[in-house]
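Section 5.1 Outputs to date
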Amino acid sequence: MKLIYPLNIQNEFVFNSSPRDFTVEEIPLYEFTGEGEHLILKVRKKELTTWEMIDIISGYVGIKRKEIGYAGLKDKHAMTIQSISLPAKFEEKIAAFEHPQIKILEVTKHNNKIRVGHLKGNRFQIRLKKVLGLQKDKLDSGLKWIKANGVPNYFGNQRFGTDGTNWIDGKKILEGTLKIRDKKTHEFLIGSYQSYLFNQWLSKRMELNLMLEKFSEEETETFMSLPQGSLKGSKKQPQFYKLLQGDLMMHYPYGRLFEVEDIQEEAERFMSKDIAPTGLVPGSKTKRASGVARMIESQFDEEMKLYGARRYAWIQVSEIKGKYVEEKAHYELSFTLPKGSYATNVLDVLRGSALEY
């Protein structure tokens, strides 16, 4: 099923994921102290994965990859800026580093190694092409909707590989029909399957949200095979993403996990961007939803030895700006997302369509 967002738009534009049209800048979790045992490099790269960039730098200074710290993995087909750390004793050697695809923009020091997840979010700059006349107005309208409502927090295509089938291998590993000896590859493929299940669940919830836009609660219950009365009061919630009894929420953009009790009260807090609903990334030692929310969630839950998590189902987009360059038919777009979120979710809302898996 192709899901259409309630923006009354179907917008066509061209986006090329390339260093010329796509820039990502990491926002550090904290300020670096300027002193300590770790050298902090603010690095700009293009047409390289973060791992490829780390391999080049670690090879140059003569250390193992694991001695270099990083906060997150950045797109290959983009101009990306991020911070990495390495032992401060290599300060003099790194001063002479040169590479056609890597530029060190700043050097400082810190008392800790950068760890995975040590970032607030990412700032994106995107150039859309072949934007003509009415399309510009549609993009303006879409940005206004996103600013007010936010976007679904699907995992991006990067999780699923070039041909989008990594999750299939992850499923085979769990079924015992595929063996991968390398531990990191093994965990990565299962992680891809976890991401796939989350996306499938979120698509189902998006389907429910969209049905409630067009049909009554009773009709939606019938279409979705839910118990009679289970959606009572959901349609009058002010926000697009409707909360269900038993949903697990978290304070936004981070905080404590808790279960929905008074739906209308929590819907108002969600609308004010104080809290947000979460979805299940299946795995062990992870809290499950209850009630009607669990009825939907359980369809996309599987036992696996990897740790699971609760992931925000819906995120807010901040610092949104759009500029139309009429003579080039370009639309220059910038925005900030919390860590772990993908720019493709914003672009899919602007196109007027949801991701398909």
